[in-house]
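During the practical work, I selected for study one protein's amino acid sequence and its C-alpha cells, as given directly below:
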Amino acid sequence: MIVTTTDFVPGYEVEKVLGVVFGNTVRAKHIGKDILAGLKNIIGGEIEEYTEMLRDARLEAVNRMINEAKKLGADAILNVRFATSQTTAGAAELLAYGTAVKLRKT
C-alpha cells in the first residue's frame, strides 16, 4: 500500500477515487508516565514517555487507516493527514485520514 501526503504518485495516475479512509486511536496517560512528565516540566527537556506514546498512537492510527483502504481494494492512500483532539482530561485521540484510490501505471 502506497501511503503519501501528496496528491499524486509519480509514474501513476488515479484510476478511481474510492473514498476517504480513517484510522484512529484514543490513548490515556499512564500515572507513572505522568509523574515522570511532571519531573521533566521542572527540569526541562523532552518528555520521552509522551513522545513514545504519540509515536505508538500514530503507527496504530496509520495501520487502521491502511486496513480500511485494503477493505475498499485501494492501491494507495493520498493526501494523508493527522489530527489530534482531547477526548477527556486524561486522554487524546489521534486520527489519520486520507483518500483511498486505485492507481494505473502511466
